[in-house]
Specification:
two-stranded parallel ribbon, globular, six-stranded parallel β-sheet, alpha/beta, 12 strands, about 15% strand, about 280 residues, single chain, TIM Barrel
């Protein structure tokens, strides 16, 4: 092939490729316009849910009183072994409108974490996980007189088994609960599309309000549902601590009607989303 013919062929290929890319780009631009917008309650642009894991004492000692001052309700995913010593405090939290969620009976995670080696997901089966989740619900019901309808995956991991035998236990969570929340998610949830058994949970620990506000604003701009996930609630700490100052700033910002934020429990928002979607 001559140099000239080769040059012409490359030019034609480039033009065809550019047209294909342009066409794809146009399709992507037009897609949002044809999508039916999800309808949030009147005056709300999107939703925000606060959630905390492990039933840590700081949650009822520091978090619940702060949240109550702003009439903000949160979801607490509890591990039953930590409930017994503070059962009365958790009952008071429930009476204030906070939601209690299931975080499993023994908090199994990958055995790559030394603390979980004796309860490694790699050694679990779906039957064993079902027992884990149903027993946790039974214990929570006996201690607090509520039955959880929301679940949070321990360590954010949703598998059991190894290699060719690995199985997802997401379908099990979908069967037993109305919602399932992950961990270390990268963004908010599209209410018209998201899998209710695999909601993205974005960390709120160890951050200033300035780092969380843009995520809230982006979610509201897009009409999405941002689910924040934390652990301890205190003034400060070495790790896995949602700072009191940050939590208060979130409550203040979300409580301002001008911002159009619906802040409520995962259970409340999840039920609304499911109803709107006709499920």
């Amino acid at each position: 092939m001559s140099v000239r013919k080769h040059s012409v062929l490359l030019t034609l290929m480039t033009l065809v490729g550019a047209q294909a890319i342009a066409y794809q780009y146009e399709v992507r631009k037009e897609a949002p316009a044809t999508k039916q917008a999800f309808r949030w309650p009147e005056g709300k642009r999107g939703a925000l849910s606060l959630s905390f894991d492990d039933a840590r004492p700081s949650q009822v000692d520091n978090g619940v009183p702060l949240l109550n001052r702003y009439t903000v309700r949160a979801t607490f995913f509890v591990s039953p072994d930590r409930l017994k010593d503070r059962a009365d405090a958790w009952k008071r939290a429930i009476s204030s409108g906070h939601e209690i969620g299931n975080h499993s009976l023994t908090h199994p995670c990958t055995g790559n974490f030394p603390f979980a080696r004796h309860k490694a997901l790699e050694e679990y089966t779906l039957d064993k996980m079902r027992t884990e989740l149903t027993q946790a619900n039974t214990t929570i019901r006996e201690l607090l007189a509520v039955t959880p309808t929301s679940f949070a995956y321990p360590c954010g991991q949703s598998f059991v088994g190894r290699g060719m035998e690995v199985k997802s236990y997401v379908p099990l969570v979908a069967q037993l609960f109305k919602t399932g929340r992950g961990w270390l998610g990268e963004g908010p949830n599209d209410p018209g599309f998201c899998d209710m058994a695999q909601l993205l949970g974005v960390p709120s620990d160890d951050l200033e309000f300035g780092a969380i506000k843009p995520q809230i604003d982006q979610a509201m701009q897009n009409g999405y549902w941002l689910v924040l996930a934390g652990h301890d609630i205190a003034e400060s700490g070495p790790r896995q601590v949602t700072r009191m100052k940050t939590l208060e700033a979130i409550c203040q910002y979300a409580s301002d009607p001008a911002n159009g934020i619906w802040i409520d429990t995962i259970g409340a928002v999840g039920s609304y989303v499911a109803k709107q979607r006709g499920k």
